[in-house]
């Protein structure tokens, strides 16, 4: 019987579990068919970066049999330059208005990446990860923001099911992106 628990990461073993799952699902490591049907992650983190992120806001993970089988990463504003590949998204917040306010002026954090092990998809883990984020952070932040590649329709649909809505769409040299938000208090 599967007993999945969702919790805040609190040690290096948890963070290493995130990295293992990330590596398995990174776009460089999955087939074209898997990319279109199952989704993928685009950003690679290091243990050092995850430690920095976890010190400011604990990362949300799902555990089954002492193994990380899902995660949803939390990136606070001050990490705007920590991962250069995400800097354009943070900078775009300067020019995007939401409810008559620049996104950059909103009290937000960025959901830096979400992933569920293939073996545990369709079991409610994705929703559980976001429920834990909301429970842990909605009293501190007004909105959770992230971006999803247009070429990852599975992820877009899953985020919409949670409650995210597209705020802005833009293209860069790699892809077309949807900046989406889960509005808790605005």
Automatic annotation (TrEMBL):
Boundaries of every N-acetyltransferase domain copy: 4-186
Top-level taxon of origin: Bacteria
InterPro entries: Acyl_CoA_acyltransferase, GNAT_dom
UniProt feature coiled coil, ranges: none
GO molecular function: acyltransferase activity, transferring groups other than amino-acyl groups
Name of this chain's protein: GNAT family N-acetyltransferase
UniProt source species: Fulvivirga sediminis
């Amino acid at each position: 019987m599967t007993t999945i628990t969702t919790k805040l990461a609190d040690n290096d073993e948890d963070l290493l579990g995130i990295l293992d799952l990330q590596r398995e699902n990174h776009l460089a490591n999955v087939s074209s068919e898997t990319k279109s049907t199952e989704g993928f992650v685009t950003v690679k983190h290091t243990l050092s970066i995850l430690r920095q992120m976890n010190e400011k806001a604990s990362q949300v993970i799902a555990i089954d049999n002492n193994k990380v089988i899902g995660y949803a990463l939390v990136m606070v504003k001050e990490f705007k330059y920590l991962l250069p590949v995400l800097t354009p998204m943070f900078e775009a917040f300067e020019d995007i208005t939401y409810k008559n306010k620049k996104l950059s002026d909103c009290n937000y954090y960025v959901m830096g990446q979400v992933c569920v092990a293939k073996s545990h998809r369709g079991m409610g883990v994705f929703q559980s990860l976001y429920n834990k984020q909301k429970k842990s952070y909605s009293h501190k932040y007004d909105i959770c923001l992230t971006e999803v590649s247009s070429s990852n329709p599975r992820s877009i649909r899953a985020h919409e099911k949670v409650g995210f809505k597209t705020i802005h769409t833009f293209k860069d040299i790699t892809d077309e992106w949807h900046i989406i938000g889960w509005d808790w208090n605005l």
